[in-house]
Write a structure and sequence with these properties.
By secondary structure, the chain is an alpha+beta fold. It has six helices and 13 strands. It has one domain: CNF1/YfiH-like putative cysteine hydrolases. Strands 4-5-8-7-9-12 form a six-stranded mixed sheet. A five-stranded mixed sheet has the order 1-2-13-6-3, with no helix packed on it. The longest helix has 14 residues. Bound molecules: zinc ion. Zinc ion binds next to loops.
Length: about 230
């Protein structure tokens, strides 16, 4: 399987974004056997048990699930997973929304967050950091990286969406309709809860422009497939 590494400079962490051709999204209509096969391949690639691959059923909510000890909570209607300890690959699925990975390497607390425009308006990234802190993470130690998502150039929205974002992240002059910078909004939310700006990596690719990644904007609402972004502490 092809993937792009994220958080490369953090020791003991494997973080990745998959490329087109791989799909582990089990709730958007893709054939079940294809999904099972790809999850098996992912487990093999990262040398872990398929049962330790955690993929929530996302609904554009601001619900954050916490995994500690052996307890796996209900992952239906969950858009961020926070995990204490090693051995589990926590993941989110996206096709233009912001996939965000975070880790405090000292306390061994990690997070995978799906921050679409609704989740971003609801500050799911900030809420995930608060959950990490409840488990013992220190925001000043958190390293964060966003995977490929829709860029501000491509994210044209209606006024009813634009007005829900701070003015600082809405472009109104360069285009006919408003454009929103989702990644910049997530960055601001992380800084507000104490994550250092220099520890946050912005997306290196636009999911709409870069055909290595799935995009609902480019490929349409009927798209079965999603890009998977995940993190494993080892
Ligand atoms: Zn683009």
């Amino acid at each position: 399987m092809n993937f792009s590494p994220l958080l490369r400079d953090v020791a003991g962490v494997v973080a990745f974004t998959t490329h087109v051709g791989f799909n582990a999204c089990h709730y958007t209509g893709a054939p079940r056997d294809q999904v099972a096969c790809d999850i098996k391949e992912l487990a093999k690639t990262f040398d872990c048990d398929p049962n330790n691959i955690i993929i929530p059923r996302q609904t554009h909510s601001t619900n954050v699930a916490v995994i500690k000890d052996e307890i796996i909570p209900d992952l239906d209607g969950v858009d961020a997973v926070v995990c204490s300890g090693q051995g589990r690959v926590i993941c989110v699925n996206t096709a233009d929304c912001v996939p965000l990975l975070m880790v405090d390497p000292i306390s061994g607390i990690s997070a995978a967050v799906h921050s679409g425009w609704r989740g971003t308006v609801g500050n799911i990234a900030g809420m995930a950091v608060v959950k990490m802190m409840e488990l013992g993470a220190c925001p000043g130690r958190i390293m964060a990286a966003m995977g490929p998502c829709i860029s501000v150039e491509c994210f044209e929205v209606g006024e009813e969406v634009a007005c829900q974002f701070p003015d600082a992240v809405v472009l109104r002059d360069r285009f006919i309709r408003p454009h929103v910078d989702l990644a910049q909004t997530v960055l601001m939310q992380l800084v507000l809860v104490g994550v250092c700006a220099e520890n946050i990596s912005l997306p290196v690719a636009c999911s709409v422009c870069n055909h290595d990644f799935y995009s609902v904007r480019r490929q349409g609402r009927e798209l079965f497939y999603r890009t998977l972004t995940g993190i494993l502490l080892c």
